[in-house]
Amino acid sequence: MNPVFKIILQRLALGLLTLFIVSVVIFTAVNMLPGDFAEAILGQGATPEAVAAIRRDLGLDQDPVTRYFQWLAGAVQGDLGNSFAQANFASFVGTEGSANMASVANQIGPRFWNTMFLAGVTALIAVPFAVILGILAALYRNSAFDKFANMFTLTSISSPEFFLAYILILFLAVLNPMLPSLSNIYADMGLGERLEKTLLPALTLTLVVTAHMMRMTRAAIINLLASPYIEMARLKGISPLRVIVKHALPNALAPIINVIALNLAYLITGVVVVEVVFVYPGIGQLFVDSVKIRDIPVVQACCLIFAGAYILLNLTADIMSILSNPRLRHPK
Amino acid sequence: MSRLLTMTDIWIEGRSDEVWNPIINGVDLHLNKGEVLGLIGESGAGKSTMGLAAMGFCRDGVRIAKGSVNFDGIDLVKASAEVKRGLLGKRIAYVAQSAAASFNPAHKIIEQHTEGPTQHGVMGKSESERDAMELYAKLRLPHPEEIGFRYPHQVSGGQLQRAMTAMAMSCRPDLIIFDEPTTALDVTTQIEVLASIRDIVDQFGTAAIYITHDLAVVAQMADRIKVLLRGDEVETQDTRAMLSHPKEDYTKSLWAVREFKRPQKPPVHDRATPVVSVQGITAGYGKIDVLYDVSFDIHEGRTVAVVGESGSGKSTTARCITGLLPPRKGVIEFDGVALPLDYRKRSKDQLRQVQMIYQMADTALNPRKTIGEIIGRPVEFYMGLKGRDKRRRVEELLDQIELPADRYIDRLPSELSGGQKQRIGIARALAAEPRFIICDEVTSALDQLVAEGILRLLAKLQDELKLSYMFITHDLATVRSIADEVVVMKDGEVVEQGPKVEMFQPPHHPYTDLLLSSVPEMDPDWLNTLLKERGVDNIGDAAVQKMD
């Protein structure tokens, strides 16, 4: 078997194993949150009977191991359970209302695609921008351009996200009304309008993630510039830009790809502040709200999606790093 | 003859710790069209720096402080980067020491070959590819139509070195700088590369600067030889005159290195128990065996040289004896008693008796420990000495390796030269008071003069302490000077073994013959004669066929 194929299979299996372990951790952690949904929703005046009734209704009275495997079995089949907050409590109203309970999938679904859309737009802007900036910084290393690029990206990564967001709103929405400052998007919006509304949060996130990727690109390339094959390329009279793009970059791909993957994962899992500032209906807000009211199925589902995104992106990065190595692609 | 390159009063400086230190001090160099100049000297002599300066190129942190490099009417010191880029690769080409490191691992060999001609607008891509295949054929590379489409890691070191020479030829330059092109190769491979380089340089009338520290090699390649010492020119002469009548003392001392030879020792008593006896070991990594049924004995006070090309299993044998790699089959006896095969099962005393000295003293010494700590560690571990006793013992050991204790005991390895570091490696091995030391290519990273010092020291220690050595090397000159017995290995098997005198006298095993005849000699006609003997067309292969 081709060794690359074997390595990829190994990584896939490892990824699945990681996901399983993470699901255990998520379940345990979520169940360790102080207080539960019944107490949270009924408030301080709750009678023990009412609390117990709701718990029974939601299955919270069963032992955690049973609940975990029920949840896992459902999740494997694509059923993430029903949201507590949207539930219609049968025992309260006295009717069999469980058919009306909103499923977690329905609740998360549109939000998830919104988040993916924002992450996608940001990635399309940020990744090429950061890599090209990194290449240019490596090409003109220690020049004024290099120093400016480093300073600019460092400043943007060091500033709090909401601050960057407000600065962009100030300049691009208030002083020069070019873009809308609110990103409330709907399911039936056209692509153009959707893009326009997403642009400001995407630009904010671009500022946040560029520094890391740009600096890694620059460092990975400069690291290689002392290697004999780069000296050889120079001694062949190859132009400096070609030396970097053609000779250094292909060998610097592995670390760059890894940093890109980490930042893309951040775009999916870590954007709640930006969502709040722009009122963008993404998954991050839903997650924070659900934690507040102990809506455990939604919290678990969000965690699982975040973990899945991290694992999938890192897996992709691993596989691409492996593919960027000719020794593995073309064995002896 | 018309002048191609004139370097006048070249001063080059290198920056370290914010200070510019001199590397080359006012050296002149000139080269006519089609002429080959040999540039020799020890490491640190400035040979490579001088060679790169001939291309108007300086590494980072190096500058040409003064002087002019006139290449065919263009001053490369004053020329702009664009002008130089137009010349590099096209009219002046470079062949680096390690082809494996100097080919870009991400691209196919032929892509790197055609890059120069296409970028300089000399030829189109397909024309250059055809030309590459012709050059590969001229350089006697196997499968010239196909080999270029491999990646560098799929091709052997000797083949890569020839592919790099072909690449240098791709634009038919007027001048090629060869920077130690065969230093990293085995002797048998070296011959093929040397012959290929010489042929093609002759054929295209290319001028060349051939940089090396190996006198015998330069004698085969150069019309004229220039000797450098710490950035100064020692002397320049035509090759034959230089070899027969070196004028300067330094040049004479370079010539004399190869004359160090130990007297033959009396034969070992028949029934004497060998210190180390390796009996029929078979070993490998993973599922693949790389050693097959290897046996030899090493007696007290004797040196057994284990020779062979890289990959022949020399170092694996050493790993088996030390217990780092337990063999699958076979016995290793020490003083007639079988040693546990795994080092973890050996007693402290058994471990103490077998010590090792490594090829790269640089990486074998902890850079953060002082010399006193490095040598003191085994003194304390094996001998249980502490405090003042330990320090006294370390001082004794430093005295034995001829380094003044008071000056060196508190230094860090980075403050020592390569030869001094290797001496520390020896002292560390001696600290355990072993009876047997494995020396793994201990002199191959050192210059000839320094290497000779190390060999003399090892010989002296052997006489004083009755040490037994297993001396792993691919350099037959070293074998000649230090060994009592020789074990020749090839592809994991012992092909011949016996006392040194017998080994260096015919008849040999054909492989030993190939190894011996491949060692360059000082005679400038040596390569010609050898090629004629072996049949010029297919030097290396012919020899191998003869053997099989």
TrEMBL record, chain A:
GO terms for cellular component: plasma membrane. The chain crosses the membrane at residues 12-33, 116-140, 161-179, 199-226, 252-278, 298-323. One of its GO terms (biological process) is transmembrane transport. Residues 112-317 form the ABC transmembrane type-1 domain. It is found in: Cell membrane. It comes from the Bacteria. The keyword Nucleotide-binding does not apply. Gene3D superfamilies: MetI-like. Pfam families: BPD_transp_1 (PF00528), BPD_transp_1_N (PF19300). Its main location: membrane. Keywords: Cell membrane, Membrane, Transmembrane, Transmembrane helix, Transport. It is a multi-pass membrane protein. Belongs to the binding-protein-dependent transport system permease family. This is ABC transporter permease.
Automatic annotation (TrEMBL), chain B:
It is a peripheral membrane protein. Its main location: membrane. Gene3D superfamilies: P-loop containing nucleotide triphosphate hydrolases. GO terms for biological process: peptide transport. Keywords: ATP-binding, Cell inner membrane, Cell membrane, Membrane, Nucleotide-binding, Translocase, Transport. It holds the Pfam family ABC_tran. Residues 5-255, 276-516 form the ABC transporter domain. PROSITE patterns: ABC_TRANSPORTER_1 (PS00211), ABC_TRANSPORTER_2 (PS50893). It is found in: Cell inner membrane. GO terms for cellular component: plasma membrane. GO terms for molecular function: ATP binding; ATP hydrolysis activity. InterPro entries: AAA+_ATPase, ABC_Ni/Peptide_Import, ABC_transporter-like_ATP-bd, ABC_transporter-like_CS, Oligopep_ABC_C, P-loop_NTPase. The keyword Membrane applies. Belongs to the ABC transporter superfamily. This is ABC transporter ATP-binding protein. The lineage of its organism: Bacteria, Pseudomonadati, Pseudomonadota, Alphaproteobacteria, Rhodobacterales.
